[in-house]
UniProtKB/TrEMBL annotation:
Gene3D superfamilies for this protein: HUPs
Record domain Phosphoadenosine phosphosulphate reductase: where: 36-222
Gene Ontology MF, one: catalytic activity
Stated name of the protein: DNA sulfur modification protein DndC
NCBIfam families linked: DNA_S_dndC
Length: 457
């Protein structure tokens, strides 16, 4: 029986550095599969990216004619702490500029969730409660899906990819157990268990935390020119680890002492944000909003007593609660000067509210106007009745105890159907639409709640 030769693991940083570069060079030249480097801006992913950059730089200097593409993939949830998000974007821009100037095959890609997958789309639009340890919906929608789409798109073009991650045995005992349980081939690659046509390489698996820091301090600035000093300052401020590029639910979530989303309610306290506040007071309203959000989550009166599947139980946020959330967010946006919600998210929220309860089709537009924001193409969704005097509509609304917006919408429906009632099925279609409007109105009235959680000034 043939015995497997044990691996010789380098013991000093110089040995580990040389060994890792040799491994990367051989792996790069082994085949034509492009590489995808998962970059979060934290220490481990920065180490991997810098080693890869040095490898490709070296091969170019040696006259290697066919340099295959390397995709630098980073994820922006749009609720990252603004100082961390800015650092990541600035670093990606520096990498892109340096690679283009030097003719290196690096392609930078920043992925984001769609409006429907976003934090505000889910919570304000559909009424999801803020995430908990037992209902951590944010990771799947905001990180896993966007990253997977990008990798699968690259694999579709090239047939297969090699994904390079900064996971290390030294990170935690649980991570070490998971990593050692995965079988690898001779090139130290293993298939990704969720992404087809993707192999995973972990080139810094045996590096210790001290070695990572020593390398980053020693080889500073990196080949792309932007100093590591800003990243090191962020770590000193937060006294924490980075939030990794998440590709599956086994990856630790953002939270605790990690750089994570400023909206994170999974943890009891956001210690990294507390550290940032000592250096950047403009982040204070974000911290207050996050704490308010956590308190709101615990108040069951803001939740529908019926779930979306019509079963009895705590369901989504009620309409007035969602409106309160949006207003509070826009107030926070004004205080900080950061754009906290995109136009696309506002449009998606309005679309979702129309589906759930907003028979007037104008709620989001009316809420955002005082804050100098507009909802794209919203005005064309449902024109109001212009041929009927508003005082007549308001009088009828008061007499019948109905919202005036409902009467305007019903009148508009009748106007649109006029002249078309001879068509087969037109009457039934109109009755269905009228019924939908009335149902939305009834839902909104029944679920109305007092505005007891006022904005913090």
């Amino acid at each position: 029986m043939t015995q497997t030769k044990p691996k010789i693991i380098p013991t000093t940083l110089d040995e580990k550095y040389s060994s890792t570069l040799s491994y990367l060079e051989k792996l790069y030249l082994d085949d034509e599969r492009p590489w995808v480097v998962a970059f979060s801006g934290g220490k481990d992913s920065t180490l991997v990216l810098q080693l890869v950059y040095e490898t490709v730089n070296s091969l170019q200097a040696k006259g290697c004619a066919a340099l295959k593409p390397v995709y630098v993939l980073s994820s922006d949830t749009r609720v990252e702490s603004p100082n961390v998000a800015k650092y990541v974007r600035d670093t990606l821009n520096a990498i892109d500029a340096n690679a283009q100037a030097g003719g290196l095959p690096f392609h930078v890609q920043l992925v984001e969730p769609t409006a429907a997958e976003s934090f505000w789309g889910k919570m304000i639009g559909r009424g999801y409660p803020p995430p908990t340890r037992h209902f951590r919906w944010c990771t799947s929608y905001m990180k896993i899906k966007p990253s997977r789409r990008a990798i699968e798109s690259i694999a579709h073009v090239h047939g297969s990819v090699i994904l390079l991650l900064g996971t290390r045995l030294d990170e935690s005992s649980d991570r070490k157990k998971r990593m050692l349980a995965i079988s690898e081939n001779e090139s130290q690659l293993n298939p990704h268990h969720e992404i087809p046509n993707a192999l995973v390489a972990k080139p810094v698996a045996n590096w210790t935390t001290d070695e990572v820091w020593e390398y980053l301090y020693t080889f500073n600035p990196p080949p792309w020119g932007k100093s590591h000093d800003e990243m090191l300052a962020l770590y000193r401020q937060a006294n924490s680890n980075e939030c990794p590029v998440v590709l599956d639910l086994s990856t630790p979530s953002c939270g605790g002492s990690r750089f994570g989303c400023w909206t994170c309610t999974v943890v009891k306290e956001d210690k990294s944000m507390q550290g940032f506040l000592l250096h950047e007071t403009r982040l204070e309203p974000l911290y207050q909003f996050r704490n308010w959000l956590k308190e709101m989550r615990e108040n069951e009166s803001y939740r529908s007593p019926v779930r979306r599947n019509n079963q009895v139980g705590l369901g989504p946020f009620k309409p007035d609660a969602r409106k309160m959330l949006l207003k509070k967010l826009l107030e926070t946006e004004r205080k900080t000067g950061f754009e906290l919600i995109s136009d696309a998210e506002l449009a998606y929220i309005q679309q979702q509210w129309i589906s759930d309860f907003d028979y007037s089709n104008q709620s989001v537009s009316e809420l955002v106007k005082p804050f100098g924001r507009e909802v794209p193409a919203l005005e064309s969704l449902m024109p109001v009745a212009v041929s009927i005097e508003k005082d007549i509509i308001e009088k009828l609304a008061i007499e019948n105890d109905l919202p005036s917006e409902l009467l305007e919408s019903l009148l508009q429906l009748g106007r649109e159907a006029e002249g078309d009632m001879g068509r087969w099925g037109a009457k039934a279609e109109l009755e269905r639409k009228v019924g939908e409007f009335i149902t939305k109105a009834t839902t909104q009235i029944n679920q109305a709640i007092p505005q007891v959680m006022e904005s913090n000034s």
